[in-house]
Write a structure and sequence with these properties.
The protein has two helices and no strands. The chain is mainly alpha-helical.
């Protein structure tokens, strides 16, 4: 009875479903690991790009505000407002 069960399982292992299963499993593991590494890299690149864009935005806003301040002081003759500036708050909850 046990020998028959073993033979039956050996026949089942020889079926097309199980032929090359080790190679298919290996390929699936490689694909999974590659996708995980790619996702990790993309997250890292996203964070670096986001940081660079925010820095660029801050630099440009400072440059614009400097120009606006200079123009305001040249043009405006009142004494109630020293200068005007554009302010932008970063929305860190948007992640």
């Amino acid at each position: 009875q046990t020998r028959d069960a073993i033979r039956q399982l050996e026949v089942e292992l020889g079926s097309p479903l199980y032929v090359g299963v080790e190679q298919r499993h290996r390929e699936a593991i490689i694909k999974h690991e590659s996708a995980a590494y790619a996702a990790k890299d993309l997250a890292r690149y996203y964070a670096a790009l986001d940081k660079a864009l925010m820095k660029f935005h801050s630099m440009k806003m400072a440059e614009i505000n400097k120009t606006i301040k200079e123009m305001w002081r040249r043009v405006y003759r009142g004494r109630d407002i020293d200068y005007v500036a554009i302010r932008s708050d970063t929305d860190e909850a948007a992640d």
